[in-house]
Structure prediction request, 443 residues.
Amino acid sequence: MAEPLKVGLAGLGTVGTAVVHLIERGRDKIVARCGRPIEVVAISARSRSKKRDIDLKKYRWFGDPVALAGDASIDVLVELMGGAGDPAKRAVETALAAGKPVVTANKALLARHGQKLAALAERHKVALNFEASVAGGIPIVKTLREGLSGDRFNRIYGILNGTCNYILTHMEQDRLAFDACLRNAQALGYAEADPSFDVEGHDTAQKLSILASLAFGTRLDPGAIYVEGISSITLADLDAAAELGYRVKLLGVAVKTDAGIEQRVHPTMVPRESAIAQVMGVTNAVTIDAEGLAPITLVGPGAGGMATASAVVADLADIAAGVCAPPFGRPSARMVATRKAPMQHHEGGYYIRLLARDRPGTAATIARRLAQQNISLESIVQRHSAGPDGTVPDGGTGRSGGSVPVIMITYATSEDAVRKALVAVRRDRVISGRPQVIRIEKN
Ligand SMILES: NC(=O)c1ccc[n+]([C@@H]2O[C@H](COP(=O)([O-])OP(=O)(O)OC[C@H]3O[C@@H](n4cnc5c(N)ncnc54)[C@H](OP(=O)(O)O)[C@@H]3O)[C@@H](O)[C@H]2O)c1
Prediction:
């Protein structure tokens, strides 16, 4: 039998441990597919004395993952430590510079340094594979890089953060407010103690920058993405969405426009019958919209040790079989600069929820301000008096002299027009609180 592919594994946490088990369990299948076995020969983690679900004695131990990356005993580095900085960055650079391919699940590292790392991998003619970095077990990187490499993409969008999708699902199904659902997500281990990176959309933005680069050949730059999270979403919004035929999801969207590639992350109303609207709980999904092709939606587990490990092992199997594609599907020098998405130019339908002061002339004032910006309404619903989160606390039996929720759906208009109209309405003092605005993404 051919020589095994000798793996150095840096990081023995949730994913690293699952990778060790999967390689051991899948040995025969791997040999059948790749013509050679894959063997973990050396490992590194922070603590050698930590109790682990694997037998450390079987592997050479490295206290320093960078030393592991450069060691002559390994053919390939698998980086599963996480973090955009060192030691992950230096370990990956060291392996690539030594002519060793790298597999990583580290979206933070790729989003920040992917451009330079791809160039380094190209220079040394080795693979840099990162299937597990976006949407865990869904093979979206390979689909974009190889499966659809001849297609022209118009748009790619997805549910890329399981924590946010779990919270939105839980709010809708159990009729609980955002804070309560976040606490439950933390208790179940779906959300970090500091959840802001997930719920404010930054995790989705890192993954979107990787997907946009694969689909559109843009240089990686998560700072160029417009980002808005889900913490302001209320039950009133989810109820209104349901009534109007939509569901609210946190989407990462990269779309080709006349002004360039618009990249944005924000709560989005999607048609309730669409494939992406059916994706509930911690599950992830990505929809690809390419020319001449009906939209393709891939749905699956976005995280978890085994799901993520399966993507890591698939990347290793490619390396064992001698496959070496350019990391982002094209030479890194040909990737184009990204501009910050000019959100003012974004065009689409909008959901707007206002708390209108219940007094004469309010409706006329709001209508005038919208008309001044050429905003036409597809629908407008006026609710009964509202509680503080926009819901009707008493079943809504009538006006109370307070504020009345007004929900409007616009026809396609620009972000700039919506923002200007709402600034004017606030200045007119005919609404209380901040208006809620959610963009609509049609099929
Ligand atoms: N968990 C998922 O479902 C998932 C899904 C997709 C992608 N990912 C990505 O996969 C990567 C690993 O995630 P994970 O959940 O497995 O993380 P984790 O459970 O926190 O494990 C991290 C591992 O890295 C080791 N490590 C951390 N800093 C180190 C250092 N300075 N030197 C040596 N070792 C160090 C830790 O050592 P100790 O064990 O000694 O502490 C631990 O074994 C991350 O990039 C993450 O974003 C994870």
